[in-house]
Every structure is written in C-alpha cells, then in structure tokens.
Request: fold
Amino acid sequence: MDYLLELLFQLVIYSSVLCALDVLVGRIGLLTAFQGACFGSGAYAAAIVSIAGLNDLVITLALAMTAGAILGVLLAMMGIRVGDETLVLASLAFQIVWSEAISNFAITGGPMGLRGIPPGEIVGLSIASAHGAIVVGLAYLLLTAAIIATVSMSPMGRLWRAYRESPSTLVANGKNPDPIKIQAFALSASLAAGAGCLYAKHAGYISPETFGLSESIKMVTALILGGLDSPIGPLAGALLLVGLPEALRYVGLSGPSGAGLIHVLYGVLLIALLVHRPQGLWGRYGLR
Amino acid sequence: MTQLLLNTMISGAVLSLVGVAFALVRACNGFFDLSVAAVLTVGAYGAFYSCEALLAFGLPPFLSFLGAATCGATLGGLILLATNALLYSRMRRAGAAAGALLVAGWACYLAAENLLAITLGHSLSALSALTGDWMIKVADKRVSAANAAGVVVSLCVIAASVTLMGSPIALALRCVASNPLLAAVRGIDVERARAIVALWAGGMAGLAGTLLAADAQISPRMGFDVAVNGISVLLVGGDRPAIVAFTAYGLALMQQSITITMGSQWQNFAVFATLLLALTLRGK
Reply:
C-alpha cells in the first residue's frame, strides 16, 4: 500500500513539473532542458530553510517558488540574448552549471545531498504521512493547472501562442516578445520549484542526482511523448515517467538492464512519435 | 607546462573533431545533431573490436591502431549517413523543423547509448590495453604514440574540413541549410549534399571516438560528455570550422588548467559558466 501511495505521490509531483514545463515547450514553443534545475532549486531552497527551522509549508513553498522564479528569469535574460534556436543548448549548459554548483558547494551538502528535512506543517498540522503528502500534492497540481489554464486564456496566453506560431508576426504587430518570454520562464520555473519543495518535504532527503541533466532530459522527453499544449499531455507524460520503470520492474526487468531498456523504449517511442505523430500522444501542438 | 600543452593537444584534437562535426552538420542541415554523440560512442566500440580482430589477424600494434581508427571513422560516417537517410530526410519531408530534428537526434542517442550498454556491457578497456603502451618522446616528455598519431590525423581532418568550408562547396551547403527549395531550383542536389556532410561529419565523430578510446576506458556514456563540450565549442566558436577548432583547443587548455589549479570537480562548472557568460555577452 505504501508503495502504491509513494508512486501516486511521484505521479502527482511529476505531473505538476511537466505542466510547468509545458508552459515553455508547448504553449510558447521554446524547447528547454533545465527543468531539473528549477525542480531542484525549489527542493534545495525548501530543504535549507526547513533544516534551519522554518517548517510552515506555505512560507517554504513561497520561498521555493521565488527561488525558481529567479532561476527562470536568469535563463530568460540569457535566452533573449542567444536566440530561440540556441536556447535549448544554453539551457543545457545552465543545467550543467547548476548541477555542478550544488554538487560542490557545502551549503547544499555537496554530492551527498541534504538529509533530515522535516515534513511540512500547515497551520500547525504536520503532513508527515503519505496520505497528507498526496492530498497537498494534488491540491498543488490543481493549483498549477488552474494558474496555467487561466493565464493561457488571458491576453498573455494568446501572446504566448502568437509567439509560438510566428515570432516575427508578433513583433510586426508592435509587441515586444522579451517580457512575454521572461514571464513564461518565471512562471514555469516557479511552478516547478513549488513541486520541488513538496518533493523535498515529503522525501526528507535530496541529492543532486534527482535534479541532474539526465532528469531534465527525461522530463522533456516524457512531455513530448505525452503531448504538448494540452491538459492531458503532461499527465500522460508523468504516467510514462513514473509508470514505465515500475511496469518493467513488474515483468522482472529491473536493475541496470531494466533502466537501460526504459531509455531505449523512450528513444524508440520518441522517434516513432516524431515521425508519425509529432504532437505526441495527447498533444495539440507538434514540435517544430 | 610541457605536460599541460601535450594534454591540451590530445584533448583538443578530440574536442575539435566533435566541434567541427557539429559545425558541418549545422552549416548544411540547420540544426544541432545530437546523434553525433552516439556516433562517437559507436566509433569507439567499433575501433575496439576491429583493433582486437586486427591484432588477432597478426598485424603489428601501430597498424592495428590505424586500422581501428579507419574502422571507427567509417562506421561513424555510415551510421550518420543512415540516420540522415532513414530518419531526418523522412521527417523533413513531413515538414519537421530544427526543434523536432534536434529532439530526434537526442532520441537516437538515448536509444543507441542504452542499447550499447545492454548488449556490450558498461565498459571496455582502452585501446592501449590491446596494443600495449608504446611511447615516443616529445620535448623530454613521454607521449603515447597512439595519441600522437591521433593528433596528427585529427589535425589533417580538421584542415580538410576547413578547406572544404572555405571552398565554393560551402556556399552550396549553406544554401541547402537556409532554403532547400531555392537550392534545388539552382541545381544543387540537396539530398546528396546532406548525405555527403553526414558521411564526413560522422567520420569525424567516429575518429574522435577512436582517439578518446586510445587511452581511456570505453563506456556507453563517453559520447555524451564529449558532445556537450563539443556543443559548447560550437556555441562559442560559431559556424566557421577553423574558429571552432581554435576554440576547441582553447577550451581544452582551460579544462586542463582548471584540473591542475582547482581540481577536476570544478572543471565542468568553470567551463559551462564561462560558456554562459560568453553567450550572454556575445549574444547570437
């Protein structure tokens, strides 16, 4: 039962992270690979303040989301300079710098990570149990989906789509795309960081591997497989991300060969979808 | 100091081969082909097994190494050619643009790396374990002859690439990248140009794999780490192969200096932080 609850928690958290990533990749059309850093910055910010004695989940969440937003704005500022085509590679470099920094600095625990992160509290009530964490995670997922849906339907959301379809047309219509991109990056990174905060508070231990480059790439792969610019796509992607390793373990393929097989499957599925169904399983927008 | 320069020459040769391979593909196809990372790894594995076979056939170690390098380069070229023909061409016909092609290249790498790990194991010994350490003296320092030969071969290949990109052929390749339809109207065989570039760039990546495998352990992951550095070289150096090659040697010098002064754990941090700074200051 605990195992299933743990899987459910991971599914909820990764759904939030992929929803946040969909803002950039699906809705505004900017392919990036630094979601692990956003997720991780929230987790590390939450872990550091919690170990220092701050246990209130709402305040921790707000701090974590601020840390994520700062990271997002930093990459956006750089992204504006390098151009969209190079952005994915710049974000890759950004992710590497971030991973190397948290693996080497003492405040983040170095390669060993941070242990003993206390569970969060809301109005004095501890949410140490798996049930509590899932309820909070679900509430956060709903909040994330609601924020993204609201912004998508607002004039800002229409500007995102306009930029995705034709940046030059947007500029020709007198709109400056730079603030649009900065806001999208800040929103996406802060929502992912919030999910990271909940993850750290539930897991009690975090290390750099959970938020590394390969995790970022796995998240982008899962989102593209699930589908872009769709409410179902990130959920389908998260199901693949969390469910596929477990399904292989269930049929007896675990350990290094099982992990390798998962990546082979991701690769083959991705190639097949890009050729035959570029919009992913449940997407509305095909990667270009 | 001499040792630092020798190490820089060896790692710079590998990096410049990969960087120039990326630059060639980008100049003609208009996207960053991440499958080059898989080609590099496959080249290293191909070189290892062919070296083993050539030694078993009775060839001397030096000739076996050169044969292995040829085999690694050929295998790399053929793989990138096949990827271009079977995947990228098909996707382009379906209207895919640079972003989708980049992700497809990444997917190829993901599948190939893990397929290699599952089928051939997680690591093989370096080529020097097969051929023996035969050393030569350069400025009173002992250098592996395989590394020295590799540096010379890579410099020749880079010189050939620089010459190619300085010739009228380069103009045709750039036409293919910027407007394939117009290039075809002007009489350029677009698919053939792309195939030639894939073969040449794949050959360079395969050769880089062989050089890397000369005295380092061969593992399925080796391609990605070098490819990420190769991309940094391309991002800083731009599209011109000569500048890319020059940047690669600069990056290699920086990596070696950081390893000596700060320790190897800071190598990636310093390199990529510098890259980000360069990108921010230099822009596009």
